[in-house]
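**Polypeptide and fold**
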Amino acid sequence: MLLDTASLYFRAYFGVPESVRAPDGTPVNAVRGLLDFIARLVRDHAPGELVACMDEDWRPAWRVELIPSYKAHRVAEEHPAGADEEVVPDTLAPQVPVIEEVLDALGIARAGAAGYEADDVIGTLTARARGPVDIVTGDRDLFQLIDDARGVRVLYPVKGMGTLAAFDEAALRDKYGVDGPGYAVLALLRGDPSDGLPGVPGIGEKTAARLIAAHGDLPGILAAAEDPRSGVTPTQRRKLNEAMPYLAVAPTVVRVADDVALPEFDAALPAGPRDPERLEELAERWGLGGSLERLLAVLPR
């Protein structure tokens, strides 16, 4: 089980009231919400391995170099010498280090890599996996990794954190009309305002799905656009040709990396806390109470 950690703690933050606070009054709604969510995941799915995948760089320079608008609307402050600072609610930002400390004290593996997003860590660990993989994320970009043959599916939170929709190939085709690799093509054609991807103007989701169904992948679509007998309409042909500078770089930006160099770590779900004393200190300091107890109760014995 691979967690898109930032995606999940953002959802926890907005899904749990800010009135959930530590003894000193500091909000801990994201911390406790994430712990409760992980407890439900472990209880319901019993993964043997669990990795909290981290954004070491939420807006990698190599993606921005290709598409400057990539996540540009989410930049709080630019740092030319390092990672840009993301817009994060004032009461969420202080909770992120607490989440990391608690996961470390529990012994739940965290994995990240400089210059890469959590998506890329997830893509790499999925490519390495020898058995089935459940990817837990609120980010649809990771739908491109769905693969029934390898047992890779996405568990996607809906209605806050309370309900998970399981996406396999059948569910993906039912909702979008494409398979996993096709979803990456759909995303780059349609665009994604939340990621600053412009897409091809005038090519919406349904048109993109029809083009993929008819011509397979992006090279097939572009080849069809050059063939007057292909069924690509003159309007679609014009729009695709006008978007060629974007289409030349978008696949690299949209594709989740699968070859990231990662540090060694133990992905096994721990039977108990790695550092019980530190965990007790954190629980008391931040008032983690029942949320931490519920997670500890479902760890394997």
Remarks:
- The beta strands are 2-4, 51-53, 75-77, 85-86, 109-111, 133-136, 152-158, 163-167.
- The first strand starts at residue 2 and ends at 4.
- The first helix runs from residue 5 to 15.
- The chain has a mean pLDDT of 94.
